[in-house]
Amino acid sequence: MKIFSVLFFLVTIISCNNQETIEKETTIINSDTIPETRTVLSSRPIANLIENAGDALNKDWAFSVKVYQTEKTFHFIMKVKYQELEAVDTLKIPNIGIQPVVVLKSGKEKFSCIVGFRDKAQQFKEYKKVRVENNQLKISVLKHYAVYTSIKK
Question: How far apart are CA 98 and CA 35, in angstroms?
Answer without folding.
Answer: 10
